[in-house]
Write a structure and sequence with these properties.
The chain has 1 helix and no strands. By secondary structure, it is mainly alpha-helical.
Length: 70
């Protein structure tokens, strides 16, 4: 079994390994940023929903009276 490995083959293998490592690091950074953005968007939506609902309660000024039957 005779393996003919040239310098260009070694350079290609090294380049492929470096490209995989760089791609992994970029995906890790982007995914972390996207997860943070999604969590932030969900929190903003929840806070907006709560603000909208409590603003409507304050504007109505109506009190709900619950009568107890004895």
């Amino acid at each position: 079994m005779d393996l003919n490995i040239t310098n260009s083959d070694i350079a290609y293998i090294v380049f492929a390994i470096v490209a995989v490592i760089v791609a992994f690091m970029l995906i890790k950074k982007v995914a972390g940023c996207l997860i943070k953005a999604v969590i932030f968007a969900i929190l903003v939506a929840i806070l907006g929903y709560l603000y909208y609902n409590f603003a409507l309660v304050e504007e109505s000024g109506e009190e709900t009276n619950i009568e107890t039957v004895e």
